[in-house]
Amino acid sequence: DTHDPTSLRTPIVAVLGHVDHGKTSLLDKIRGSAVIEGEAGAITQHIGATAVPLDVISSIAGELVDPDDFDLPGLLFIDTPGHHSFTTLRSRGGALADIAILVVDVNDGFQPQTLEALDILQRSQTPFIVAANKIDTVPGWNANEDSPINATYEAQSDRVRSRLDESLYEIIGNLSDEGFSADLYWRVQNFQRNVGVVPVSAMTGEGVPDLLAVMMGLSQRYMKEEMEIDVAGPGVGTVLEVKEEKGFGKTIDLVLYDGTLRASDTIVVGGTNEPIVTDVRALLQPRPLEEIRTESRFEKVDEVSAATGIKVAAPDLGDAIAGAPVRVIRDRDRADVVAEVEDE
Ligand code: GTP
Ligand code: MG
């Protein structure tokens, strides 16, 4: 560790898309591939988020990601539910993300929540790429587990290739109808101007190396400056969910995107009426799956640093709302911090 107070945090990647288009499966596939690569321990499951470090990304992506080309520590993925009743959470999930993956089923194409997600991304000015998922369901598909897209594409028959092309161009056309200039990702020069479309299968892992490579490249190229944070500074985050937790009462699941949050901190949380000022009682992390006992699903930790997902137990969180800002007071003036939360 250096004494430089600023360091580069992990970019936060929201995974959005219509119900059943494969958001969770895609993250499961990335976790599963890490297990196969003998990197199970390196992937950490956070509250509402999965952290994938750079060396794991590189081992999954193979030659598409050379770790020496990057100095960002990896990617933190946030899964979002596609069901329509989660609209508010999703719109907030979209706003707190640095970048996003919009998952579209190649057969099902654009659907209501795809359009809704696009609208959220546009409004929050979040750069994104499109994962055209389920390519393995193209009739006649010849699966090549975990292969980069060009190799598996070459291994398909002409007929299969043209069927896939058709579906992909339909997605590109749909994006264009919504005002986004898009193309297959390997043709995109400037990802700030054009949306890259990455064909993938969450089932077979085909295209997943490309997806990870594009996300890393995009982050490194366009997000690096925004990732420079004062890690030791007072934490800043966003509420993902407010949840009743047995033994802890109302808790908030939050994504911390700046600084540090300690179990000894006083925090300000946006509420339905006014900001809530409260003392953290416990910072709770999910235990690894194999360690979960019925009585203690969580492990208490003393502090966490951005970017991470964490559950916070504290009094008076009943009025906290999903999407609200959270700020640590620590040595700052209490009224200033309350005013900042009020303005956000
Ligand atoms: P919600 O969270 O409900 O919005 O859905 P989701 O987007 O997370 O979709 P999920 O990952 O749960 O996948 C929905 C269904 O599609 C499941 O039955 C998956 O097994 C299937 N599925 C997802 N990805 C693929 C894929 O690449 N190929 C195939 N053949 N099936 C897939
Ligand atoms: Mg899901």
Automatic annotation (TrEMBL):
Protein name: Probable translation initiation factor IF-2
Keyword Cell membrane: no
Portion of the full-length sequence here: 5 to 348 of 599
Annotated signal sequence range: none
Span of domain Tr-type G: 8-223
UniProt record similarity statement: Belongs to the TRAFAC class translation factor GTPase superfamily. Classic translation factor GTPase family. IF-2 subfamily.
Residues engaged in binding GTP: 17-24, 79-83, 133-136
Gene: infB
Keywords tagged on the record: GTP-binding, Initiation factor, Nucleotide-binding, Protein biosynthesis
Task performed by this protein: Function in general translation initiation by promoting the binding of the formylmethionine-tRNA to ribosomes. Seems to function along with eIF-2.
Domain of life: Archaea
Gene Ontology CC entries for this record: cytoplasm
Single Gene Ontology MF annotation: GTP binding
Keyword match Cytoplasm: no
